[in-house]
Write a structure and sequence with these properties.
Elements lengths: L2 H25 L2 H17 L7 H15 L1 H6 L7 H4 L4 H37 L13 H30 L2 H5 L16
Helix pairs in contact: 1-7, 2-3, 3-7, 6-7
């Protein structure tokens, strides 16, 4: 293994570690989300005293959980892929198709998503925007910050995926078959923990 390829694998591993850390940390948002739902159900149906905040809290937490967790999902190979043709291709061909799709579809979309999301966030932050459809009137800019944060995390994880795909596509013969499948999985496709 050349020093350049080992360096690219170290960079990919560092990005993977960040993605795992953020993914596992954000997974804890499930607890306050479920607790707010349980609180609302109990308050509404047992005490006839619905809350004004539970619905807003639930959709903001779920949105944050869903968006920030998408980079971890990408790392784990959990996004939708049409395998009708892909599964029949060699590992090198799969890696080359992955690189082309990242270059043409993924990275441009994430750059636009991040750019527009950042503008959306800054406008909301500057106005100290609140959700006006809610009687609770919670501020919304922290929730909107998740849009550019998601784009940044997805861009980073996309770089890690491309570094590995590049090695499979153009590396030595061993690298073409090793590490086939999504990041964090073994060559047989089983996900490593």
């Amino acid at each position: 293994m050349t020093s350049r390829s080992s360096m690219s694998l170290r960079v990919a591993d560092a990005i993977d570690a960040l993605t795992r850390l953020v993914g596992k940390a954000i997974a804890w948002l499930v607890l306050p989300m479920v607790l707010s739902l349980v609180w609302e159900v109990v308050a509404r149906y047992f005490f006839n005293a619905p809350t004004v905040w539970a619905y807003d809290m639930t959709f903001m937490l779920y949105g944050t959980f869903f968006m920030i967790g998408s980079a971890w999902t990408l790392q784990r190979g959990g996004h939708i892929r049409t395998d009708v043709f892909y599964a029949k291709w060699s590992t090198r061909t799969q890696a080359r198709v992955d690189l082309a799709c990242y270059a043409v579809l993924f990275f441009p979309a994430m750059v636009v998503f991040g750019w527009l999301g950042a503008e959306y966030f800054w406008k909301s932050f500057g106005q100290n925007e609140r959700i006006v459809t809610s009687p609770w009137l919670p501020i919304v800019w922290p929730f909107k910050f998740m849009i550019p944060a998601t784009a940044a995390l997805l861009l980073l994880q996309g770089i890690a995926e491309c570094l590995r795909a590049w090695r499979r596509a153009f590396g030595d013969d061993d690298a073409g078959e090793a590490g086939a499948g999504p990041a964090g999985s073994d060559a047989d496709g089983s996900v490593a923990t």
